[in-house]
Amino acid sequence: MNPWALLVILTVLVNFHQSDAQKTCDFFQGRWVGDSSYPLYNSSSCPFIQREFNCIKNGRPDYLYLKYRWQPLACNLSRFDGVKFLRRYKGKSIMFVGDSLSRNQWLSLICMLYSAVPGTRYTETAVGEVSTFTFTDFEVKVMLDHTVYLVDVEREDQGRILKLDSIEGGKLWKGIDLLIFNTWHWWNRRGPTQPWDYIEVGGQRYKDMDRVLAFEKALTTWATWVDTNIDPAKTKVFFQGISPSHYNGSTWNEPRAKSCLGQKLPLAGSTYPGGLPPALTVLKKVLSTIKKPVQLLDITNLSLLRKDGHPSIYGLGGRTGMDCSHWCLPGVPDTWNQILYNFIL
Ligand SMILES: *[C@@H]1O[C@H](CO)[C@@H](O)[C@H](O)[C@H]1NC(C)=O
Ligand SMILES: *[C@@H]1O[C@H](CO)[C@@H](O)[C@H](O)[C@H]1NC(C)=O
Ligand SMILES: *[C@@H]1O[C@H](CO)[C@@H](O)[C@H](O)[C@H]1NC(C)=O
Ligand SMILES: *[C@@H]1O[C@H](CO)[C@@H](O)[C@H](O)[C@H]1NC(C)=O
């Protein structure tokens, strides 16, 4: 056969392969629909849920929020199949890298997988900031590297330095088969819970700087790390988009609500009255500069609609620890993982 004809046929085949659901359908554009077959697992059958996410155990009385499924406008998501996932990732490792929103998604994935093979053998280990849950029978490692800024914070004579150009922590991410990054919530921390004293960038130290700009600089350092270190033939890279909080009812047209407490239903439709967080624009801008393939898990819109999905007082601290940032499990992060599943299988 003429080599050009062969090339044309191959090109058509490759494009055809890529034009299934994930290429033609935006998974992130959709709405929440009631589905009595949800949740995907039972909180009492997943002993690994950390207390702060275990809303039912902490006494949350309403259950309707568990009964929703994300429905993209242009296609259907495949239902999560934990056994298929575990077989596909046999001998491989998955790592979530980021803050407690990464922990939220990490535990969700462990529960989704474990409930597909209840009673299967597992081990749990923690070394430094890295926690590893191993499905022994399947040789699958589901890991979490807790690092709230992705870039380094180092203790020096002057104090704790947040180094926007330095990402030594990345040595822990090498050789992993599936990486899901996230950072945002800590960039606005101030006062006693801010875990640094100075910011260093471009060889200069500052007492403080514009936080969104600092976020962008750190993401750019991370982007360079990806371009330098990732072999796309081995590793798939995702970025968990900006997970939204719900402390201001005005943003969902309920100005009297001062938090997510008592919210029992998602917003109908696909549009959030309060619009998107500006950090998402920064994130998308930096992602657009990366040469290696990185898929944004663009979970902001779908999560914005879930003002009912947070622990509120059914997290750690009761009324003093009102939590409208994290998510109950089972709950919204299960959908993030279901979409992740639809990208990788
Ligand atoms: C979860 O398990 C408990 C105890 O086995 C059961 O009573 C409850 O109905 C289950 N909930 C769901 C949502 O399946
Ligand atoms: C999605 O699933 C529904 C119900 O199973 C079906 O009626 C519909 O045709 C499917 N849509 C697409 C785009 O596959
Ligand atoms: C709540 O959101 C509204 C509308 O976006 C805004 O005008 C207001 O300043 C916000 N309130 C607080 C306390 O942030
Ligand atoms: C996300 O939400 C914003 C604000 O509600 C809306 O303008 C935008 O069209 C939505 N995007 C998608 C992909 O649904």
Description:
Its main location: membrane. Residues 1-21 form the signal peptide. InterPro entries: TBL, TBL_C, TBL_N. Residues 77-342 form the Trichome birefringence-like C-terminal domain. With 345 residues, the chain is α/β, with parallel strands linked by helices. The chain has one domain (27-344). The protein has helices at 3-18, 21-24, 82-88, 100-114, 211-229, 278-287, 300-304, 332-344; strands spanning 30-34, 68-72, 93-98, 122-127, 130-135, 140-146, 152-156, 159-163, 178-181, 198-201, 204-206, 236-240, 294-297. The strands form three sheets. Strands 4-5-6-3-9-12-13 form a seven-stranded mixed sheet, covered by helices on one side. A four-stranded mixed sheet has the order 7-8-10-11, covered by helices on one side. Strands 1-2 form a two-stranded antiparallel sheet. A hairpin with a 2-residue loop joins β4 (122-127) and β5 (130-135). The chain is globular. Mean pLDDT is 93; it is low at 6-19. One 2-acetamido-2-deoxy-beta-D-glucopyranose binds at residues 75-76.
